Amino acid sequence: MGMSQSQKRCVSGPRVPHMRSGYFFFLFTVKAGFDNLQRQCVHLILDKFDLFLLLSTVILLCVVEIVIVLMLIFLRNRIRIAIALLKEGSRAIGYIMSTLFYPIVTFILIAICISYWAVTATFYTEFIVLFLFLSIQTFNTTNVTKLCPGAQCTFAFYGGESLYHKYIFIFQLANAFVFLWLVNFAIALGQCTLAGAFASYYWASRKPADIPLWPLFSSFGRAIRYHTGSLAFGALILAIVQLIRVILEYLDHKLKGTQNSFTRFLLCCLKCCFWCLERFLKFINRNAYIMIAIYGKNFCTSAKEAFFLLMRNVVRVAVLDKVTDFLLFLGKILVAGGVGVLAFFFFTQRIPVFAQEAPALNYYWVPLLTVIIGSYLVAHGFFSVYAMCVDTLFLCFCNIMLNYLQICVEYHLKNYLSFVYPPVENILLYAQRNYCSILIF
């Protein structure tokens, strides 16, 4: 039997949506399966990446550990010297306890320098404000407003044709240079004073009987009376380099908006070079001030002798600096962390004894961070005395070793260039007869 056209349409019509829904369900299933597979692949890649990162970290730590162990094995004699110097430095500070309070003097001197610079730098601004105030007062006392009812006194520009207005930038630059010079001189005075006090301890034959009564005040008097010019010259060299760095930072700030990549690259290289030069000069000046305090020579001679003396003992210098810096850093962290923990319990009112005195704070992180940073800076100031003590004793030790070698050479010459290494007792007896008493702790 044949079917009409409408019947065919009725029969075949509902099939089309059913086929389309099955097709879409198939696409959804395939897409869901593909997303699941893709998700699994991503997780697998991440797991492999995490495993690779973990293995790389373990391998790197193993390599670092092996390098540290090899350094400890091959540099054990140098490390022993560094430990002996640290012990002797602790003993020296124990005999001269007044050196721990000298950073307060340095802080006061630097505060005076900062106050002088701030007052001088703001003088020009105060001058402009005073000039405007007097101009407005003068305008109000005149009859200009009567003659010209719409007249007003407004600020147009500042400046002028006087010498002061023409070279105001040069004056501000000179003020910054004087500020840097004074700050570096205050630091140099402190370093030379501490070095002289610790050197008097080192060269004392019988400790503490032969140590001067007031070693710190005696060293401060010698530095002021005899070594002011040398300290000022060393501070001048360092201030010049720091001023050049300030100028480079100013130029970098002014040229930051330009698109000239070569100029920015050149400025970056110059800033890096002068930063390295400043660090080197600080290192040389520090050791030169120690030599000045010990032998009383001028700055150039002391810097030359200190440099060559350190180059003869470059491995000992590197080991001593790293060991000392690491131990002092641990001390600073210990002090700052201990004070931070106490401050946390105090501000949160968890200490029953001080619960009533503690202020009620809604947000105690700001005073807590302030206390931690302040305690770290104070610890840094006091631990710098310890670092200066170790550096002074190390230079004294290097001088003794150099004199010891010279005495050995002279002893061999006196004994017709004998190739048998002389006993230490004979060398010390020869040194005692021909030189001052040599001290090796």
Automatic annotation (TrEMBL):
How does the record classify its membrane topology?
Multi-pass membrane protein
| Reactions that this protein is recorded to catalyse | choline(out) + n H(+)(in) = choline(in) + n H(+)(out)
Superkingdom field:
Eukaryota
Gene Ontology MF: a single term: antiporter activity
Q: Which residues cross the membrane?
A: 21-39, 51-75, 95-117, 123-139, 176-204, 224-248, 288-311, 326-348, 360-379, 385-405
Subcellular location field: Cell membrane
Protein family according to the UniProt entry: Belongs to the CTL (choline transporter-like) family.
Give a GO cellular-component term.
plasma membrane
Species for this entry: Pavo cristatus
KW DNA-binding (keyword) present: no
The reply to whether Nucleotide-binding figures as a keyword in the UniProt entry is no
Q: What is this protein called?
A: Choline transporter-like protein
User: Which InterPro entries does the record associate with it?
Assistant: Choline_transptr-like
Q: What does this protein do?
A: Choline transporter.
A Pfam match? Choline_transpo
Q: Which UniProt keywords apply?
A: Antiport, Cell membrane, Glycoprotein, Membrane, Transmembrane, Transmembrane helix, Transport
